[in-house]
Amino acid sequence: MSGPSQFQAIQGTNRYPRSVKRKSRKRSDESSHASVAGSGPGSDESGVETAIGSRRRRFFALNGASFLLILLILAGVGGGLLLIDYLKRAPVREAREKIEAGDYGFALTVLNEYLISNPNDNSAKSLKGRAHAGLNEFQKCKEIYEQIEGVSDVHDMFAFAKSLTVLEQYAEGYSNWIGVMAKIGEGELDQLKAEKKNLLMAEALYFMAVCQTELGKLERAAQTAEDLKKVEGHAAVGHYLLGLIEIKRGREKVALQEWDQVLVLDPNSEKIRIPPYLFYYEVGILKVEQGESEQGIEMLEKSLTLNTFIDLQRASNAMEAIGSAFEELGNQEKSGFYWSRQIAFEKQYQLKPSLVAREGLANAALLKKEPVMAINFLVPLRNAGDVKSSTTYLMQRALAMQGKEKEARQFQQLTKELREKERKINTIREALREKPDTHWAVVIKAYDFAKDKNWSQAEQLLMTVKEHLNDDFSQRFLKAVANQGVLPPLTDVPVDIF
Fold it and tell me: Are 176 and 201 in contact (CB under 8 A)?
């Protein structure tokens, strides 16, 4: 504002020449001495207000007004700052709305642009993490949340826990799901519509049970799956999940009962979080294994119809299982047809050789006294590594049929060694299935993770039981995991302790 200040303008209304000021001041002193009781300063004897008293009253009145004006200005400045901040954060609010509407790509674009000029805005970063999770970019989501201290919003915790689970970091994922469930228990989702709340609750229980299962906490996982069955609209996925857990517990018949319930509740397999072809495949395989061959064939044929060029390995496995089911039903012609179809399929797409199909066709060739054909079916299994005693036994028979006694005896010895090795491993796994809470169960679970190159999860599991790992196998295994090196053979586990 140009010109004199407000304070100067107020004073400027009562300016006098110096001589007049002095004279007035003197007269004022004289009049004040002559004043009588009851006459205030600035009044004459009759109480009439003098010029100087008038000035004082005007000064204080006007300065009081200016004080109020200053307060109003300051309040206006604060409100203006709030308004500016509100307008500046409009992109964050827009991104939040887009995320809630499921438009994650648009939200990510808005947030990326906003964060260029506001790189330290943690709320915007958290929303970006949610957007990445919504786009199934779980590694990016995880990296964002690991940079933010004290993630406390239930939706952020949810996205972080889901990312950890999908990335197979089950121990850390599990601890985060516990936090999510605590928030839900405190009513953090109560403001949502029932359908949305149930969806998030079901997803949290599903992934929590996955973590519990992978960590070997099968009893807890089964209870979590039971809780999932009670969430309105999500009973089918609860039954499906419980079926998977029961298989891990060695209760395949109970698992089939759960999956039969899925077929009743969700006949088109639209609500169970996996593609329909995969569910029909899993049900079909289990039914064949449990002797329900005809129903198994029906499910597997259904899976093949939906799948053939989506998931090549499972399509190949389905052909293998159908061949086994027909063999169980005594139909050698159809079993041979499906196994031959599978071998042609695996050659076409360069898949891993099928143990069951090749051994089945080799056995059929031996029954026809065709040892060369049998050997041709078996050789790819030997070349693929991890040879089974059943394969070497068939090789022994084929060589003996050709009169190659020396080679046959070599395979006989190899068969004996492999059977002993397989017996040890089966003993260990069966014992640990009955005692899932022992430290050895954790070690074997960690071993499976390490075999799949999931080194971080293997290491996390081993750290939970490190004080028990004093034997030679465990020490070598610990070192192998730390160095991401060659694992000691599972047969080195001291079997007698089981």
Answer: no
What DSSP character marks residue 59?
A: H
DSSP symbol at 290? T
* Cβ pair 320, 342 in contact under 8 A: yes
Contacts of range 196-205, beta carbons closer than 8 Å, 24 or more positions apart: 198/231, 198/232, 198/233, 198/234, 199/233, 199/234, 200/158, 201/231, 202/228, 202/231, 202/233, 202/234, 202/237, 202/238, 203/158, 203/162, 204/158, 204/161, 204/177, 204/180, 205/231, 205/238
**Contact between residue 228 and residue 234 where contact means Cβ atoms under 8 Å apart:** yes
Residue 301 has pLDDT above 60, yes or no: yes
Predicted TM-score (pTM) of this structure: 0.72
- Classify burial at 305, counting beta carbons within 10 Å of its beta carbon; exposed 0-12, middle 13-18, buried 19 or more: exposed
Q: Quick check: 116 and 132 in contact, CB under 8 A?
A: no
Say which amino acid occupies 446.
A
From the list 404, 314, 322, 304, the residue with the least C-alpha distance to 351 is 314
Residue type at 422? E
> Alpha-carbon distance 337 to 360, whole Å?
11
Residue 318 has φ and ψ, to the nearest 5°, of -65, -40
207, 173 contact by CB (below 8 A): yes
How many other CB atoms are found less than 10 A from the CB of residue 466? 11
19-34: per-residue pLDDT in tens? 333 333 333 343 343 3
**Distance between alpha carbon 344 and the CA centroid of its chain, in Å?**
38
Region at 332 (left for phi over 0; alpha for psi -120 to 50; beta for the rest): alpha
- Could you say which DSSP state residue 3 is in? S
Q: What is the pLDDT of residues 79-126, one digit of tens each?
A: 455 556 566 789 999 999 999 999 999 999 999 999 999 999 999 999
Angle at 249 between CA 247 and CA 252, to 5 degrees: 35
> Residue 382's pLDDT is what?
85
Distance CA(463)–CA(472), nearest Å, equals 17
